[in-house]
Amino acid sequence: MCIANAHKSKDRGDSAMKNSTNKRLEEITVTTVIVGIDIAKSVHWARFVDYRGMELGKAISFKCNRQGFESIVAKVKEICNNKLRKLDKVIMGMEPTGHYWKTLAHYLIKAGYRVVGVNPYHTKKAKELDDNSQTKNDKKDALTIARLVKDGRFFDPYLPEDIYAELRVLTNARVSINKRFCRAKNTITAILDEYFPEIWEVFKYPLKGKASRQVLRSCPFPSFILELGEAGVLAEVKKAVKRTVGIKKVRELIEMSQASIGVDYGLESAKLRLNLSLEELEQSERHLADIETSMERMLHETGYAEQFLSIKGIGVITAAGFLGEVGNPLRFQDARQIANYAGYNLIEDSSGKSKSGTCISKRGRSQLRSVLYQMAFTMVGLNEEMKELHKYLTTRAKNPLKKKQSLVVVSKKIITVIYSLLKKQATYNPALVLGDVRREMMKAA
């Protein structure tokens, strides 16, 4: 991204930040009780301040259960009912990291309280302001969080509901199972490379075919293959494949086994480990299939399937993954907010005459960036408009981008296209994607 464009983006960002900060500060009035909560697994800490940052009462700890949640609500009511203070508004601040905060936030929101998030990075940097000490403890962090909220340094955490909550759970589950699948696949590859590296010459993709998988289950290593012989290996393969299996493959297996350079120690244990990894791989495949079926159904229930699937290069899984990460895209005011939510906002480090290059902040949802990268990678191959844009960005005479940088720009363009289609309830129109200005720039290049 060129520096001039970066400055324009920075100016827009500074203005937007100023407006949003002022809006947040307007929420803090003389009648506001600010509660800073430090989240832990079992015991949370809470501290209370007024609009000036002065503490109201003592810090309290409460357990992560209904009784504990009721105690913090009771304490807040006690502070608000103090006739001398005349407080009638409550803002609860916490760091939305991990998953421990979600139960408390859900409870407080259901109870009618305003719940906001504080960036953990801000807490880390601000905790030394009061005592000039690096000491960290839950009680101290709770006060730091409360005072950050008092200064307007908070944001609205997003807890998806209804169909978007379902999609987020499915998206997270798919990511988790995909990791298990890759781990099992890598383990199997490592075992085969050690014990029977020649198998890759017989079966190009031994984890895909039924016959090759049966070989891996019953006779994965040269000694087992040679022990069974031609008839025995053929009989094992026929257990998985009903049709006639070519004897040529079996003979090739035996030939490779005779000349194998694979190790011959720990064979029984290696076979057991291989079979366990195969079971995990196949179980992951079944789970992925179930999850992807549910994702497809949920995508259609959002009412946005037609708009997403009209875009060449976006499939059911990436569309569902996008909605799982973002929620309803129309909850944002514009596409730029979604890009910032993903961590695509540009930053630079400039001071005086010293100017650095620009890069994305990455302070956003990493899984959303991953989904968008998959979309961009596919679309620059299949979608003519995105392919044309990618080519222009990487080959233009002035400030050409590297391929990965270009994919970031394409990702942001994809966000704009998606948001526009959903807002207008329209399907993809190739002629409207790039716009007249961009096309003129591309022609000039």
List keywords for this structure.
globular; 3 domains; 18 helices; 445 residues; Nucleotidyltransferase, domain 5; disordered N terminus; alpha/beta; two-stranded antiparallel sheet
Account of the protein in words:
By secondary structure, the protein is α/β, with parallel strands linked by helices. The chain has 3 domains: 120 residues, Nucleotidyltransferase, domain 5 (2-Layer Sandwich); 99 residues, no CATH class; 142 residues, no CATH class. 60% of the residues lie in helices and 9% in strands. The chain contains 18 helices and 7 strands. A 5-stranded mixed β-sheet has the order 3-2-1-4-5. Strands 6-7 form a two-stranded antiparallel ribbon. β1 and β2 form a beta hairpin. α4 packs across α5 and α15 packs across α16. The longest helix is centred in the middle third of the chain and has 36 residues. 30% of the residues are buried. The N terminus is likely disordered.
Query: Taking strands numbered 1, 2, ... along the chain, how are they ordered across the largest sheet?
Result: 3-2-1-4-5
Number of helices: 18
The termini sit apart by 16 Å
Which whole number gives the mean pLDDT? 89
Low-confidence stretches: 1-10
Gyration radius, rounded: 29 Å
Along the chain, the helix and strand elements come as HEEEHEHEHHHHHHHHHHHEEHHHH
Q: Outline the biggest β-sheet.
A: 5 strands, mixed
Number of strand segments: 7
Query: Strand portion, in percent?
Result: 5-15%
Structural class: alpha/beta
What coarse outline follows from CA principal-axis ratios?
globular
